[in-house]
Amino acid sequence: MAKKFEHEIEVRGHLIDSLILTKIFDIIMDLNGEFQVQEFTVGKRKKDESHAKIIIQGKSQDHLNQILEAVYREGATSKIQQEIRLKPALRYMVMPDDFYSTTNSHTEIFHIGKWIEVENMMMDKCIVVKANRAFCTPIREIKKKDMIVVGEQGIRITPPERPREGVNLFQFMGSSSSSERPTQHIARKVAEDIYKTKKQNGKIVLVGGPAIVHTGADESVASLIKLGYIDAVLAGNALAVHDIEYSTLGTSLGMNVRDGTLAIRGHRNHMQAINSVFKAGSIPKMVQKKMLAKGIMFECVKNNIPFVLAGSLRDDGPLPDVITDMTLAQRKYKEILKDAKMVIMISTMLHSIATGNMLPADVKVIVVDINQPTVTKLMDRGTWQALGIVTDVGAFLPLVTQEIQKITK
User: What DSSP element (H or E) covers 177?
Assistant: First the structure.
């Protein structure tokens, strides 16, 4: 008789409406495995969880392990709980070869006979265990002899649920993107969700690129900050430079934002803006000296809204406020993103991707960009509560701001 290679798993949660069970079945079949559903209990009410027990069969132990590793990442756990395995880091910034690579979903580890929540959840990191606590840790923060989780056993992932408060923008458009022209309807729905998040004291972070200024949406974003709907701004050198250029000279990259005409000697305006900041000493000092009296950066300083500007090789200047140390910039981004409930990503692929990699899967994300591939890439990060809008931010953001102003009247 041929030896059977099988293992029993179980899975709990909103298995049907969040498609968790469908994903597990798809994985098993895609990997040419077999499965038998031993037990399936469906929740009777909307908020009730479902529960399933499934036997998975593989062609060999290695084949079975491959399937198990994949389904564990979708929320399945072994019927027989096993302790996590730990190995020490041999030196600074070096993980054991078989380290567990994290997802951005809520994660727990089975350690010393109980489940422990992994803190500071992010994707593509490792898990370090210290004093019976578990931390999601980037490679640059690993110290020699840190105890790191290896393999897949003893790990439980809880995938994000679909929103359960009824059909809303993030439910019927979640995990997809819309290329429709901006409409009052979509803008109203976005405005309502921003308003609702803030009313519940949720932290809202904006990640922005210079297209906000180029397209004429600068004043709309400044208004959102002034009205108290943005709690922090993450960007690069360019957004700050062109915001200050527009606020002081009326141009962006030398073009008059109002009518799109080329300004006289406009080619030097962004350098003049940079020079003005260096002359003042910093962006806050520029505001204090009344050299800057409007715009996104002005409203951040005036309303004590923290901002982090991360540098890159292509930066002109960069401004004295820009962090040119990549590791430090990452750390500052993470500090700002802690406890965020909503992140609005506008026309900046690189800063948005970096931000997305630092977010747990249950954070609401709004992505607005004229470039379809950019929106698709940003949307594909494993969150149900995401909305992608392919459109001109210069047309869309003023609509959102207008709708918020209507709500607050």
Answer: strand 177-178
